[in-house]
Amino acid sequence: GQQVMQIPQYQHVQEGEDFTTYCNSSTTLSNIQWYKQRPGGHPVFLIQLVKSGEVKKQKRLTFQFGEAKKNSSLHITATQTTDVGTYFCAGGTQGGSEKLVFGKGTKLTVNP
Amino acid sequence: DSGVTQTPKHLITATGQRVTLRCSPRSGDLSVYWYQQSLDQGLQFLIQYYNGEERAKGNILERFSAQQFPDLHSELNLSSLELGDSALYFCASSVDPRWNTGELFFGEGSRLTVL
Q: Rounded distance, CA A36 to CA B36, Å?
């Protein structure tokens, strides 16, 4: 079935370093959403990208949607301890039975 | 606070038992989704309801069932529980039933432990 692969599974960084997580789909997506789950918390919506090649920024976070709408990335500049958590991408499938398929997430830890 | 309420927050039970998890969506949201999150796993989609009707089905076991009531709250029933059913169960809601139109609002989850 539809799969969304997300890498890396874990990432440890020093505070101030940059961080990137990547999301890839074998099929074209209608949209990509990103969620953040803090330790012990629930997923919280960050952003949705719909257009091919779209780039959106939220302060230190930059989100990209690939030209072919099959991949996406989230880049955090100068990480802070508040960035700790698991970042999930979720791809919207096209046609037929629509679903939002979540990647397994990238768990980010930040050493102060 | 997402506005989505889930009860109970924690539940411990034995193998073979049956439990019911409850979810109240955000005010105005007609669509409810159930997800299962096991340790270090992603979010596995189980089932979606929209305005009382089942809309989409994921990898939901036959031992599991769900429904959405006229007041839009939803219940997920898990029966003949096995150790592997231990997980965090999230409910999410949205206004629109279509997946590609906006965010999902997640509740805080119900942590189920099967001993």
A: 16
Convert the pLDDT of each residue in A57-83 to its tens digit: 999 999 999 999 999 999 999 999 999
CA–centroid distance for B76 within its chain: 6
Q: Are B107 and B94 in contact (CB under 8 A)?
A: no
Nearest-Å Rg of the Cα atoms of chain A is 14
Cβ pair B100:A104 closer than 8 A: no
Task: Determine whether the interchain pair A88/B42 forms a contact, defined as Cβ–Cβ distance below 8 Å.
Answer: yes
Q: Which amino acid is at A108?
A: L
For residue B101, is pLDDT > 80?
no
Chain B residues whose beta carbon lies within 8 Å of the beta carbon of residue A95: none
* A41, two tokens: 């918390």
Tell me what the mean pLDDT of segment B23-30 comes to: 94
Burial class (CB in 10 A: 0-12, 13-18, 19+), A87: buried
Determine the pLDDT at residue A39: 93
Q: Would you give the DSSP letter of residue B98? A: S
The number of C-beta contacts closer than 8 angstroms across A and B is 58
| CA atoms of A25 and A91, how far apart (whole Å) | 8
Side chain identity at residue B96, one-letter code: D
Q: Under an 8 A CB cutoff, do B45 and A41 touch?
A: no
Q: Which amino acid, B40?
A: D
Q: Which of A111, A109, A60, A56 is nearest to A87 (CA)?
A: A109
